[in-house]
Amino acid sequence: MKRHSFSIVVGLLIAAIILITTGFVPGRRSILSIAAQFKSNNSPPALNDNKMTNDTAKTYDLVVTRSFNASLASIWKTWSDPELVMKWWGPVGFTSPSCKMDFREGGVSLVCMRAPREYGGQDLYNTWTYKKIVPLQRIEFVLNFSDKDSNKLDPAKMGIPPGVPIDVPHVIVFKALDENKTEITVTEYGYTTDQAHNMSKVGLEQCLDKMAAIFTKN
């Protein structure tokens, strides 16, 4: 594959995951329509200035709260059980063919997202490095782009659109609403553009839709 074509594919994948990316609100268009916008742009993707800090650049933190018709223990497992993670990781049209979990403070999980065949079918890897785990209450981890061996990659050098930092801290807070209903709040920190924030938001929403579907099918 030519270098420019590879850059386009990476851009499509990143559009899918900007930590789990796709579409815009309202209407939540699928990743395929958003990917088409990236593909139609013939110029190389702009590089992200990852040297900016919170002292010199405004950040757009993402917060999404969702309730599920499932027990607290069941929802907790969707973040700690690799078989369940693979069922919801990635937006509409994407799959997760592998997930290696090391779910403990200091551990590093490796999750894979695969693009649809019409967009090359490439695999994109992310690591989750756990900073704090309070059972059934809270998970804190840092998301990074990586290769298949968990080596961290610089998003700017991958052709990722501006606004995505090298390290994306995540905090997941769990709350039991009743015996079979659970609420979670997901916060992602450090985006430096509206575009990165908005694309990440819809991608996260679609991932949570897939998570909810795990329980509606049972």
Question: Care to describe what's here?
Answer:
The structure is a single chain. With 218 residues, the protein is α+β, with helices and mostly antiparallel strands. It has one domain (3-216): Alpha-D-Glucose-1,6-Bisphosphate, Chain A, domain 4 (2-Layer Sandwich), CATH 3.30.530.20. Helices cover 28% and strands 28% of the residues. It has a seven-stranded antiparallel beta sheet. Strand 2 (99-100) and strand 3 form a beta hairpin. Helix 4 crosses helix 5 (194-216). The protein is globular.
Write the layout of secondary structure elements.
Elements: H1 3-17, H2 31-40, E1 60-68, H3 72-77, H4 82-88, E2 99-100, E3 108-114, E4 123-134, E5 138-146, E6 168-178, E7 181-191, H5 194-216
Antiparallel strand pairs: 1-7, 2-3, 3-4, 4-5, 5-6, 6-7
Helix pairs in contact: 1-2, 4-5
